[in-house]
Amino acid sequence: MKKIFIILVSLLVVITFNSNVYADKLLESGFLNNKMDYSKNQNIDDPKNKIILIYNHGQDDHDDPSNNCVWKNGIRNFSSIVGKKIDGKEIMLYLLCTGPLAGDDYKRLWNKKKFKPPYKGITKLDKRVKANLELIDQFLKTGVPNKQIILTGHSCGGWMTMMLMAKYPDKVGGGISLMQACYGEISKKDKVAKLGIEKALEKFRKRKGSGPADLRQKQIDEIKQSKILSVLVFTHPKDPYDGLLSDWVEEIPGVKRIIISEDKKINGKKCYRIGINNGERWKEPVKRYHDMDMTDCFQYYNPTIIKYIESRI
Question: What is the pTM of this model?
Fold first, then answer.
């Protein structure tokens, strides 16, 4: 009996220790408050005096369906400006969860032995664009001026933000893209720093096949066709995803790019991720450069973000 008790206690300790410290996911779409939680009031009161930020999360996989949306700590910085006013207009934050969407050809796309072009159907990113357009139309119907709607997104969400803004430049007031990427850790795994961009992308093509490589380039080419792309873009050179592959955004008129420092500090301050686990706050040094926009020190850029929004409404 003692042995069984010891085993059970040991298992409990292991489970507790190994439980994900980034618990308390946000899994449904809705307006959030400045406490990283859903607002009790999900209505838009006085819509003409509201600024709505639509937050688009990253993806576990490029084209596959997923049950995830965002961890509370991942949206803490945009949540921190909820309720602030710009020219008398109050900022609201809407989390759009589109994880369950799947690209029509996702089962073939990343299988380089099975995939033969063209991609059949609609990609997940294009479906996410459509979901955003439908949401924007709902906000417009309530009376929110389109210039007071700002798209935002992290990783694949940031990539999708630029895709939508390129195709529909007058649909919203502007966009904020954070660590845009959606095709894996190309910068790190394909050794961009050592080989250079061209050879690294060739390596990526050999490693993952022509499907992802061609689709990525197609989307970049479409974004670059913009006559003007009014998007604020944040990148980090050590981001293992597209950290050293982001210079192309500066070729597009209207893009304002901010390159975050080359270490895990911003303005000399060491960066931490701070979140909530089962109601308890936790804090740890940031581990991934891809997550720099989720850290406490990223709030150094809040005045820049506020100023950008002010310039667009």
Answer: 0.92
